[in-house]
Structure formats: structure tokens, C-alpha cells
Design goal:
Layout lengths: L10 E7 L2 E7 L2 H19 L6 H12 L6 H19 L9 H9 L6 H20 L27 H11 L5 H10 L3 H5 L6 E2 L4 E4 L2 E2 L5 E2 L8 E4 L2 H10 L18 H18 L3 E2 L5 E2 L12 H12 L4 H8 L4 H7 L5 H11 L12 H13 L1
Antiparallel strand pairs: 1-2, 3-4, 4-7, 5-6, 8-9
Helix pairs in contact: 2-3, 3-4, 3-5, 6-10, 7-11, 12-13
């Protein structure tokens, strides 16, 4: 009598998925993962009907694939995009009856939005309909054939001019806004990160501050939007001296509102409006009898509070800070974001690079180059 072949399964996975008992064995962990995934895909295909409405499947998709993997603020944004743009644009019809053209037309209708917002809508739409196919709701996977429309160019930030920077520091000196704005300008924090900053986050001994929290779009406070946002930033000595003068308890806010409490979008807008007004006046703007600015505004518009952070990054480039270090200090998850600011190499940065490559060389900024000087010396000796 032939003996049954014995299989030596080292790995096993058991769970109840969508009401179905799963018990899978495999020889390797990789094979087990593949088998479990295939089994769940099969269950999904059998348990979700193509007649499921888009809003219902969209909610299932977010809860299953996004709720545990993204921040709450981004999850809330995705819920808004799903409801207002995707379901609102396509219509709350059965997923199985949605045509690729319906989805593309919805995307095309978003072309008047900013390019960055269109990318969010486009990426979420592709993921949604890819999962619709994998779950058996659509006969084909048309997600890869979708075309992302071009949107409006995002408003690029700019650095303050030397004159604007000098004016800014003069008009905020001694005001309630000084510390808040100087932290952005001299440490590169995002306004939402400054709002949530507490005195325990400032290391006076080592002249650093730790960025661990930020205010979200919905007004809540939590970790920065990406892991890269968790960082330590050096504090210049003059700014540290100002911090020492205003130092409070460990858990009190570093930059509260004048009457106490945490800043809001409204209070930040008012802060920046009065700061720009003061800069315009300080730089020589003409005023009418009511104090309104008439004629030319010396401060070049648009100028946003966020541009102080842009200026910080530009100053890092001028100081010769390597772009990978700058990205870390800025809290950028992708170095390509930093590279957009580092694209215009300043004269100072080029001089620093030149000195690193050729320590004995001299630039032409003082007149003749080193090679010209040597040539001139040779001419004199020959004479």
C-alpha cells in the first residue's frame, strides 16, 4: 500500500475574513502571503456586487485601504475628495455600470483646479477603480488608461529681497508677532508647526528645537504630515536670546495669541496683513488721510507668510548647505521639493563650490581672476 506524501508546511495563517474562515498553509512566508492575498481577493470578488453604488464602494475602499495607513487629516481630505469630486462628478451609480469615459470626463472637469489638487484627485481615482476591478466590480482595469488633466500652475513661493528682509525685522522688532515670524524665517518651520510649538521643544543648552507637532487643516494638533516633518532644527544665537526672554512653562505655547490660546487661520491672516502693511509703510509707501496705501506698494505681491520659510531654504543654499541636509531641516519627505528652491544657484553658493573644488583659486568678483593675475605678473617679469 502506497504511503501518502507528507508535506512539511512551516507557515500557517488562520482568520475569519468577511465571514469566511481562512486556513492556509505554505512552505515559505512569501508563498503564504501570496496565498492569503489570492484567497482574500477571491472572497472580495464574491462578496461585493457590481450593483454596489459608487458612494458605498468608495467608503468601503477608504476604510479598508486608507484608514490605518494615512494621517487623520489626509483621510478626512480623501473623504471630501471622494464625496464632492469623484462621486459628485461621476454620479452615485452602480460601480459596474460606470464606463471609463465617465471617469475621464469627471477628471477633465477638474482642469480649473490647481495642478497639485488634481494630482490628489487623479491618484485617488486610479486607486479606487483599480480596486474595483480587483474586487470584480468592473470587467476590465481601466485605471491605467486614465489621463491626468493639466491644472492651473501652483503659486510658487519666493524669497524676500534683502530690503524686504531688513524691513520685516525692523517692523516686527518688539511686537507680539516677532517671535512667531522669526522662527519661520530663521528656523524654517511651517506656520502650523510654530503654532503647536511648546517650550519643552526648545533645547536651550544645545541651541536646537524639536518639531514634533503641527496644527492640521481642521484645527486639530498632531504629528507633522509626514515622518520627515519630525526633525531637530538649529536655532541662531540671536533668536535663542529672544526665546530666553519670553521663556514659559514646559507645556505652554511658545507663540500664543496676544490674549492667550492657540493661533487660528484667522489670527495668522491678521498677523500677516498688519506685518505687510507695516513693511510697506516702513519702505516708503504713500498713505491717504485714512492711512490707506495709495499708489505703488513697495512690498512686491504676492508675498505670503509661508515665503519666510522659502527664504530660509534659499538662505541655506546661499550658505552652501548640501541639498540633502536642507531637505532634512525643511522637513521635506522628497528631496525634489527642496530642489525646486535650490534651482537658482546664487553667486555665494557658486563661490563656495569653487573654493571647495579649487581652494587656491580666486573668483572674478574682485576684478581679475587668479589666472589673469598670474599672466599679468609674467608680463611684468618679461618686461
Amino acid at each position: 500500500m502506497a504511503m501518502a506524501k507528507k508535506y512539511d508546511y512551516k507557515y500557517r495563517h488562520r482568520e475569519t475574513y468577511c465571514g469566511v474562515q481562512i486556513d492556509i498553509k505554505a512552505k515559505t512566508s512569501g508563498d503564504l502571503i501570496r496565498k492569503v492575498k489570492a484567497k482574500k481577493d477571491k472572497i472580495d470578488r464574491a462578496s461585493i456586487s457590481p450593483d454596489t453604488k459608487l458612494s458605498v464602494f468608495g467608503d468601503m475602499f477608504l476604510r479598508t485601504y486608507k484608514m490605518k495607513s494615512v494621517s487623520w487629516s489626509w483621510y478626512n481630505d480623501m473623504e471630501a475628495i471622494m464625496k464632492s469630486k469623484i462621486v459628485g462628478g461621476i454620479g452615485n451609480r452602480p460601480v459596474g455600470r460606470i464606463r471609463p469615459m465617465d471617469v475621464q470626463l469627471m477628471l477633465n472637469e477638474c482642469s480649473d483646479l490647481s495642478d497639485s489638487y488634481i494630482k490628489k484627485i487623479f491618484d485617488l481615482t486610479k486607486q479606487l477603480f483599480h480596486q474595483a476591478y480587483k474586487n470584480g466590480l468592473t470587467p476590465t482595469d481601466f485605471s491605467e488608461d486614465l489621463v491626468r488633466p493639466a491644472g492651473k500652475a501652483n503659486g510658487e513661493g519666493r524669497s524676500l529681497t534683502p530690503r524686504e528682509s531688513a524691513s520685516l525685522l525692523r517692523v516686527i522688532s518688539g511686537t507680539v508677532d516677532e517671535l512667531f515670524l522669526r522662527i519661520i524665517l530663521q528656523c524654517g518651520l511651517r506656520p502650523g508647526e510654530v503654532i503647536a510649538l511648546q517650550w519643552k521643544d526648545v533645547d536651550f543648552r544645545n541651541k536646537n528645537l524639536m518639531v514634533e507637532r503641527a496644527m492640521k487643516k481642521d484645527g486639530s494638533v498632531g504629528p507633522p504630515k509626514s515622518a520627515a516633518g519630525l526633525r531637530t532644527v538649529p536655532v541662531p544665537s540671536d533668536l535663542l536670546d529672544l526665546m530666553k526672554e519670553q521663556r514659559g512653562g514646559p507645556f505652554s505655547l511658545v507663540c500664543p495669541k496676544q490674549k492667550g490660546g492657540m493661533h487660528t487661520k484667522s489670527s495668522l491672516r491678521k498677523m500677516w496683513d498688519r506685518t505687510k502693511y507695516a513693511m510697506n509703510v516702513e519702505m516708503g509707501a504713500d498713505l491717504d488721510e485714512h492711512g490707506n496705501i495709495t499708489g505703488i506698494h513697495p512690498v512686491q505681491e504676492p508675498l505670503r507668510m509661508y515665503d519666510l520659510r522659502h527664504t530660509y531654504c534659499t538662505n541655506l543654499e546661499k550658505a552652501g548647505v548640501p541639498i540633502n541636509i536642507a531637505a532634512r531641516l525643511m522637513g521635506h519627505a522628497d528631496i525634489s521639493v527642496t530642489s525646486k528652491i535650490y534651482t537658482h544657484a546664487s553667486t555665494e553658493a557658486l563661490d563656495i563650490a569653487r573654493s571647495l573644488i579649487d581652494p587656491d583659486g580666486k573668483s572674478d568678483s574682485d576684478g581679475k581672476s587668479d589666472s589673469d593675475g598670474k599672466s599679468e605678473g609674467k608680463k611684468k617679469r618679461r618686461a
